[in-house]
Structures are given as C-alpha cells and as structure tokens.
Write a structure and sequence with these properties.
The chain has 149 residues and is mainly α. The chain is built from six helices and no strands. It has one domain. The longest helix is centred in the first third of the chain and has 30 residues.
C-alpha cells in the first residue's frame, strides 16, 4: 500500500495531480460566482428599462463629459433588448458590440471554463497585433457612430 500524498484530497480521482484538482475547484467556484452575478444583473436589468430616463443605471463617463458616444455606449440597452428578444433593437443600440463583443466574450468565457475543467490554467494573452486590431476597431466604431449618427 502506498503512502497518502500530502495535501491531496481523498475525493479526487486517483493519480490526478493536486494542482489540476485545485484548478478545477477554482474554475467551478469562479464560474458559479460569475453565473450568479450575471443572473442577478440580468434580473435587475429585466425590470429596469434603460431606454427610459431616470433609471438607476450608471451613465457613461465619456458621454457625460463630451456628449459623444463611446464605442461601448448602448451596451446596457443592447443587453436589455437581448433579454427581451429584440435582436433588431439590440443591433440598433450597439451593432459592433453585438456582432464582435458578445461572441468574443462567449469564446473567452467558454475557453476558460473548458480548460479549467480539464485541470489546466488558461490565461488570455492577446498578441500586440490583436490588441492593435481591437483598439483600431473601437476607434473606428467610435468615430463612425458619432459622425454617421
């Protein structure tokens, strides 16, 4: 009979490294916390129409200071419309965020969960080229949505 491994959980799969179990446990905890916070935010937003003035929602600091729309302005309205099944209204609120941001967030979140459940750490490490593309897209979108209207 072999000696127990120090720090190993008696409930872990035999032969699985302790680090992989810790990564899985942490991933599940973070996923549960993010899911709970997202559900709470969506429940609040479901009953709080950001299209109506006077709602208890934060205003965009860039918009408050300049009067211009930042690349993410309309994101709260977009999520509200998506929750209510209004895809065309969500597209009107912020087309770039809907078409690019939502799939990107889903991919990164899914990849983090997938790798974590397999016991592997995953860190999002965008290349300089990727960062430049994201910043250029945000800049162009910010200009286009304020010029075209």
């Amino acid at each position: 009979m072999s000696a127990p491994v120090p720090g190993a959980s008696p409930y872990a799969a035999p032969g699985a490294p302790a680090d992989a179990r810790r990564v899985r446990r942490t991933t599940l905890g973070v996923a549960l916390a993010v899911t709970g916070l997202t559900a709470a935010a969506c429940a609040y937003l479901w009953h709080t129409d950001p299209h109506q003035p006077g709602q208890a929602l934060p205003r965009c600091p860039f918009n408050v200071m300049t009067g211009l729309l930042c690349p993410a302005c309309g994101g709260t309205r977009m999520v509200y419309d998506l929750l209510h099944g209004e895809l065309s209204a969500a597209f009107h609120d912020n087309a770039a965020l809907l078409v690019l941001g939502v799939p990107l967030a889903a991919y990164v979140g899914g990849r983090l969960l997938y790798e974590g459940l397999r016991g592997r750490r995953y860190r999002v490490r965008p290349t300089p080229r990727t960062l430049a593309a994201v910043l250029a897209t945000a800049l162009v979108w910010g200009v286009v949505r304020n010029v075209v209207g």
